[in-house]
Design brief:
Elements lengths: L5 H6 L5 E3 L8 H9 L4 E4 L5 H14 L4 E6 L5 H10 L4 E5 L4 H7 L5 E6 L2 H10 L4 E4 L5 E2 L5 H11 L4 E4 L5 H9 L4 E4 L1 H4 L8 H8 L6 E4 L7 E4 L2 H11 L4 H8 L2 H6 L24 H21 L1
Parallel strand pairs: 1-9, 2-3, 3-4, 4-5, 5-6, 6-8, 8-9
Antiparallel strand pairs: 7-11, 10-11
Helix pairs in contact: 2-3, 8-14, 11-12
Length: 313
C-alpha cells in the first residue's frame, strides 16, 4: 500500500512511521527495533557526550541493516559534535529540533543525508523548505517534551498547504486512528513518540512505562512557558513544585536549577515523583508494553482499515 508514499520512498522504509527522537529514551536498541519493524528508528543525540553517541551509532549499525535516523537538538551544547558524527558515519536520516537547521543542511545534504526538521509553525516550515529540507515534521502541542502552541489538527493541514515537501504529522498520535486522521489532514507520514516509550525494546525504567500505562486523558501538564521552552510531562510532585515556583515569579535560574537532571531521574532511576516524565496527551491511549514491531503493525493495520472504510463512503 505504501510503495508510492513519498515518505517511504524518501526514507527507503516499509511504513511511513517515524519514531520520535526522545532525549534519554531513544537509544540504539529502540531505534533498531523500530527500523527492523518497518519504520524509521531515531537515536536522540540530545546533550549526549560525543563518545557516548558514537557508541550508539556503532551499536545500531550492528543491530539493523535498515535505514535509521539521528535527532539533533540544535540548542544543545553538543549539537556540533552530533553533526560531526552524523557526517562521519553517513547517518541516513537526520531530524532536527529547537532551531534553524541551516548548518545541518549545508553539511549533510551534500553527503546524501535526508534532513527533516521538526517545526511548530507555518512560517518555520516555509523557511526550512526554502533552505532545502527534504521533509518537515509538523509537531502539535499534544506532543510530549518540548512543544509549540498549535494543535496537530490545525498545524498539519496549514503546513501541508504551505510547502511542497512531504509533511509528517506528530503530536498526539499513538494508534491507527490518529495516523488515519493525520493522513486526512494532508500528512504523508506520522511521527510517534509516547507509544514507543512503552515498547519492549525501550530501555527506560519500568516505573516510567507503568506511569504512562496508568495515565488518563488529563494526565499531562505543560510547564516552563515563562522560560520560553514549554515542556509537556505527566503530572507529579515535580511538576506541581515547578508550577508553584513558576506562578510565584521565580527567576529563570531557580526554575532551570529545579529542572536540571529530572529527565534522567525518571528514565534511568525510575523516580516517578520527582523525575520529569515527559509524555504526550496520547499517554491515555497507551495500555500495554509490546514489541516495537507489534506496535507498528497495529498502527498500520488499524489505519488501513479506517482509510479503506473512508474510501467506501
Amino acid at each position: 500500500m505504501f510503495e508510492n508514499n513519498p515518505v517511504t520512498k524518501l526514507l527507503k522504509i516499509k511504513y511511513p512511521i517515524i519514531q520520535g527522537g526522545m532525549a534519554w529514551v531513544a537509544d540504539a536498541e529502540l531505534a533498531a527495533a523500530v527500523s527492523n519493524g518497518g519504520g524509521l528508528g531515531v537515536i536522540a543525540a540530545a546533550s549526549m557526550p560525543p563518545e557516548a553517541l558514537e557508541k550508539e551509532l556503532l551499536k545500531i549499525k550492528r543491530l539493523t541493516d535498515k535505514p535509521f535516523g539521528l535527532n539533533i537538538m540544535l540548542m544543545s551544547p553538543t549539537a556540533g559534535d552530533a553533526l560531526d558524527l552524523a557526517a562521519k558515519y553517513r547517518v541516513p536520516v537526520v531530524t532536527t529540533g529547537a532551531g534553524l537547521p541551516g548548518k545541518v543542511l549545508e553539511r549533510l545534504k551534500p553527503l546524501g543525508t535526508t534532513v527533516m526538521p521538526v517545526v511548530a509553525s507555518v512560517s518555520h516550515a516555509e523557511r526550512i523548505a526554502k533552505q532545502g529540507a527534504d521533509a518537515v515534521i509538523a509537531e502539535g502541542t499534544e506532543a510530549g517534551g518540548h512543544i509549540g502552541e498549535i494543535t496537530t489538527m490545525n498545524l498539519v493541514p496549514q503546513i501541508a498547504d504551505a510547502v511542497s515537501i512531504p509533511v509528517i504529522a506528530a503530536g498526539g498520535i499513538a494508534d491507527g486512528r490518529g495516523a488515519a486522521a493525520a493522513f486526512a489532514l494532508g500528512a504523508k507520514g506520522v511521527q510517534v513518540g509516547t507509544r514507543f516509550v512503552c515498547a519492549d525494546e525501550c530501555t527506560v525504567h519500568i516505573n516510567y512505562k507503568e506511569k504512562i500505562i496508568s495515565s488518563n486523558d488529563r494526565a499531562t501538564v505543560v510547564t516552563g512557558r515563562s522560560l520560553g521552552h514549554p515542556v509537556r510531562a505527566l503530572k507529579n510532585k515535580f511538576t506541581k513544585q515547578f508550577e508553584r515556583l513558576e506562578s510565584s515569579g521565580a527567576p529563570a535560574a531557580e526554575l532551570e536549577a529545579l529542572g536540571s537532571g529530572k529527565l534522567r531521574l525518571a528514565v534511568v532511576e525510575g523516580d516517578t515523583e520527582m523525575g520529569s516524565l515527559m509524555a504526550g496527551q496520547s499517554a491515555g491511549l497507551v495500555n500495554a508494553v509490546e514489541p516495537a514491531a507489534v506496535i507498528i503493525e497495529s498502527i498500520i493495520s488499524q489505519m488501513n482499515n479506517i482509510l479503506s472504510e473512508m474510501a467506501r463512503l
